[in-house]
Amino acid sequence: MPANGSSHPARKHPKPNPSGVHFLAAPRIADELVRSAAITEADLVVDFGAGHGAITAPLARTGAEILAVERDPEFVRKLRTRLSDARNVRVIPADARTFSLPRKKFAVVASIPYAVSTALMRRLLSPTASALDRAALIVEWGFAKRLSATSPRDLETAWWAARFELRLVRRIPARHFSPAPKVDSAHLTVHRRGKPDKLTDRALWTLLQAAHRTPHAPARTAVAFLGRKPHRLLKANGIDPERAAAAVPPPDWAALARQLAADRSLHWPPLPRALREDRR
Ligand SMILES: C[S@@+](CC[C@H](N)C(=O)[O-])C[C@H]1O[C@@H](n2cnc3c(N)ncnc32)[C@H](O)[C@@H]1O
């Protein structure tokens, strides 16, 4: 075993790796990842792209029920051998993009393959029916920066950030993976902000859509359609009416949506199907 404590020695020079498989070669980072998700015996946890079990093994030690999802049959075989004593781990040969997500509350702790990051986050964070409670993820650095930005750059990210707290915990240098990828990664945590009712979700989506239709226009123009006094409405909710609509933090739009949803004289269009259920 190499000095870094991994069974997969880190290479000095990145080799071409078209499959995008980068094994975590730092057990300390895997432990931190698991700890940051506060996993207990009561949890159901999915590890997407389990590989050789760098994250599955410390997850197994928490006593939680673990679903280790892996697409590569060779890795599945090795992982089953490695974790044959762990009765709380089920190794599932499946594609993360089509695997049936649990219907009961679950957490995700995983180093997700870069190539499927967006598709997977969309499945986990977009549908109101998603039972995801929290996640601790290793993702590509740029992706983590984009997701955790105070002002999301697009409507989809704003929807995610309004309903989940997306926090960049720290940068993880490429040297901690084997083979080392070209770019650094990040430890990103995800926590559900609460379970809003259906009307609040509909009001939120309508507000975010309006804000991102003309992202640079002042927030007051985004709420003009409501036919209320935009200045007063926004100020009462701690939103600067002159601030660019897309720069208003999504949780502020969510607070406004909660208030507006309580007003039964207002009507909100239904959510698109992709925001109600998982469309694999
Ligand atoms: C970045 S590696 C992480 C491996 C391991 N979790 C670790 O941290 O060392 C990504 C893993 O995801 C697997 N993978 C790639 N695409 C996948 C997909 N669509 N569904 C499931 N697993 C996938 C790869 O085979 C690989 O094992």
Automatic annotation (TrEMBL):
Gene Ontology molecular-function annotations: RNA binding; rRNA (adenine-N6,N6-)-dimethyltransferase activity
Domain Ribosomal RNA adenine methylase transferase N-terminal: 29-194
Keyword Hydrolase appears in the UniProt entry: no
GO cellular component, one term: cytosol
Protein residues bound to S-adenosyl-L-methionine: 22, 24, 49, 70, 95, 111
Alphabetical list of InterPro entries matching this protein: KsgA/Erm, rRNA_Ade_diMease-like_C, rRNA_Ade_Mease_Trfase_CS, rRNA_Ade_methylase_Trfase_N, SAM-dependent_MTases_sf
Taxonomic source organism: Amycolatopsis albispora
Region (Disordered): 1-21
Keywords: Methyltransferase, RNA-binding, S-adenosyl-L-methionine, Transferase
UniProt family annotation: Belongs to the class I-like SAM-binding methyltransferase superfamily. rRNA adenine N(6)-methyltransferase family.
SUPFAM superfamilies attached to this UniProt entry: S-adenosyl-L-methionine-dependent methyltransferases
Protein name: Ribosomal RNA adenine methylase transferase N-terminal domain-containing protein
Top-rank taxon: Bacteria
